[in-house]
Amino acid/amide ABC transporter ATP-binding protein 1 (HAAT family) (Pseudacidovorax intermedius), 274 residues
Amino acid sequence: MHDPTAQVRPPEARAPVLESRGLGIRFGGHAAVDDVSAAFHAGTLTAIVGPNGAGKTTYFNLLSGQLPATAGRVLLHGDDITRLDAARRTARGIGRAFQLTHLFPRLSVLENVRLAVQSRHRAGFNMLAVWRSRADLVEQARQHVQQVGLAARLDEQAARLSHGDKRKLEVAILMALEPQVVMLDEPTAGMSVDEVPVILDLIARLKAQGDRTILLVEHKMDVIRSLADRIVVLHNGRLVADGMPAEVMASAVVQEAYLGVRRQRTARREVAHA
Ligand SMILES: Nc1ncnc2c1ncn2[C@@H]1O[C@H](COP(=O)(O)OP(=O)(O)OP(=O)(O)O)[C@@H](O)[C@H]1O
């Protein structure tokens, strides 16, 4: 029988691009991430979800090298990268919005993205002469800026951008680096409702390319529903569910561990705003 979900299942036949095996970190006696094993495949967008303090950001930090694991391993194309620092992992194709360059506050939006394009093309950061002769790279930078909806802010200093626009600039920089593994930590946080679709559309187009491995930490259920091929749920540092969105959302453990908590928080917020 035809399985309508088959086309979005992670391609098990292919080796994962990124993998964690028994990954963990302890802060004092507290296991913030505890024995997490998961594999991420090209062409798949995996949403990492869970209540506040579940360990999502810490898990991201372990994958991207921001934090050293105290247990387990991280594999990239089967190579053990557990001991590589964040910069080396970035060079190997793991891209994460905030870690990449941090924004250069005094440089303009275009200049910030320009540097990312330059570094991708290994033209070096100080080779102004090379840069001037590479009008195509400027054009690429412009396109990345345009794609995140910042065309009108091209010459604005990064420091002067609103929080939402800074997030967009981070995403533009990430895109300019063309990483194979794209890690997005709440990419629409701090954006107004009308700004969100620009970023979601960009992520959807990135996903449609089919060759990227995308990991997304996200709280917004509508974002998860529209983009995720797969959901990994963390709770108290442990992986408690991993599967197709519909089955994960329906599972009792998620209803209790995640959705229940969110509902309570939303209700509290609604009461507070009433
Ligand atoms: N550097 C640190 N030192 C000590 N404890 C930490 C550190 N970083 C994170 N933790 C703890 O680890 C746990 C997981 O935190 P983490 O930020 O990863 O959760 P999260 O799921 O990303 O939460 P949120 O949705 O609120 O961002 C929390 O209990 C947190 O207090």
Q: What stands out?
A: Confidence is low (pLDDT under 50) at residues 1-10, 266-274. Residues 101-178 form one domain. The beta strands are 18-27, 30-40, 44-49, 71-76, 79-80, 94-96, 181-185, 213-217, 230-235, 238-243.
